């Protein structure tokens, strides 16, 4: 079974309330956006190191490809988690937004691929 956006949102809210209780220390859209941007930057740094492996220019001491792939997966997960919290702050259903945008791009490009938006 795969994770759904609805399940992520439910657990994200529960955990968010433990770290940043909306009543006592509310975060703004800017706070969630900045956190997401920071995680995106960390993912980019991992990809930079992966690219060094791909071009055989890795300095001695860089993590291995397998270590970097694990790190990238974790950073991307952080980006998605913060994207969901940012979307929630502004009342956006992330699953619906992703499906709608994906379908708009497919339509614009003349591609048949579509996501269900239920």
Task: Briefly characterize the structure.
By secondary structure, the protein is an all-alpha fold.
Mind explaining what this structure looks like?
The protein has helices at residues 5-19, 29-54, 65-89, 94-109. It has 118 residues and is mainly alpha-helical. The protein has a domain at 29-109: Orthogonal Bundle (Helix Hairpins). Helix 1 packs across helix 3 (65-89) and helix 2 packs antiparallel against helix 3 (65-89). It is globular, with a radius of gyration of 18 Å. The relative contact order is 0.13.
End-to-end distance: 18 Å
Task: Name the CATH class of the domain at 29-109.
Answer: Mainly Alpha
**Helix-residue proportion:** 55-70%
How big a fraction of the residues is strand?
under 5%
Query: Do you know the CATH topology of the domain at 29-109?
Result: Helix Hairpins
Q: State the secondary-structure class.
A: mainly alpha
- Give the overall form: globular
- Number of helical stretches of at least 4 residues: 4
């Amino acid at each position: 079974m795969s994770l759904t956006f609805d399940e992520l949102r439910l657990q994200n809210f529960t955990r968010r309330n433990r770290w940043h209780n909306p009543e006592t220390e509310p975060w703004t859209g800017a706070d969630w956006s900045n956190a997401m941007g920071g995680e995106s930057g960390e993912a980019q740094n991992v990809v930079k190191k992966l690219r060094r492996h791909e071009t055989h220019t890795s300095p001695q001491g860089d993590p291995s490809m397998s270590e970097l792939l694990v790190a990238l997966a974790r950073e991307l997960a952080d980006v998605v988690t913060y994207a969901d919290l940012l979307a929630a702050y502004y009342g956006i259903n992330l699953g619906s937004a992703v499906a709608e945008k994906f379908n708009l791009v497919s339509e614009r490009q003349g591609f048949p691929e579509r996501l269900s938006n239920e």
